[in-house]
Amino acid sequence: MCGNNMSAPLPAIVPAARKATAAVIFLHGLGDTGHGWSEALAGIKSPHVKYICPHAPVMPVSLNMNMAMPSWFDIIGLSPDSQEDEVGIKQAAENVKALIDQEVKNGIPSNRIILGGFSQGGALSLYTALTTQQKLAGVVALSCWLPLRASFPQGPISGVNREIAVLQCHGDCDPLVPLMFGSLTVEKLKSMINPANVTFRTYSGMMHSSCIEEMMDVKQFIDKHLPPVD
């Protein structure tokens, strides 16, 4: 059990078509891998951006009767008052910060990196962006929620990302992570960071998934916040 961090294979990567001057790190949802999202991002890619889709380690998940599956942290329940895996969430955020550091070592400054994710991955990307001292270009949070929300102070955060741009998206027919979670999350975000920088988009009829319209919104957001530098 203790070798979790070794069990995750190398990320699925969509390389930049020319020299990478920006990066998107995108975290998949519970039970998934990075491959599907790397294919989705390849469909909207920009030539100067590298897309990194890591795979979560395999661990038992309480919500799914302790079955082992790819998961960034344990999920105990899906209601707003469910107990949360605080230790696991904080450890997962440290692992994401290490991925960001790796890209900085590769020559891409952190303010040219967008962090994103779907469902559990989106939750982790929001938590990481709000707690890291790495200045990021933006966050893409799809069909998700803000974990450990009670651990954040009332009012604006003091970190480097209090002006960060956030694109939050949600389907209005999501049976797993209800739209209400998205609405509550966006309200909390607007109290913590500059509300003018938070965009919330909903998609009619969309369940716990993605759609072409959403991917186009994601592409627009990435292109706006990671423009070519040369």
From TrEMBL:
InterPro entries linked: AB_hydrolase_fold, LYPA1-2/EST-like, PLipase/COase/thioEstase
Domain Phospholipase/carboxylesterase/thioesterase as annotated: residue spans: 11-225
EC number per UniProt: 3.1.2.22
Keyword vocabulary terms for this entry: Acetylation, Cell membrane, Cytoplasm, Endoplasmic reticulum, Fatty acid metabolism, Hydrolase, Lipid metabolism, Membrane, Nucleus
GO CC annotation: endoplasmic reticulum; nuclear membrane; plasma membrane
Family: Belongs to the AB hydrolase superfamily. AB hydrolase 2 family.
Protein name listed in UniProt: Acyl-protein thioesterase 1
Organism: Nyctiprogne leucopyga
Gene expressing this chain: Lypla1
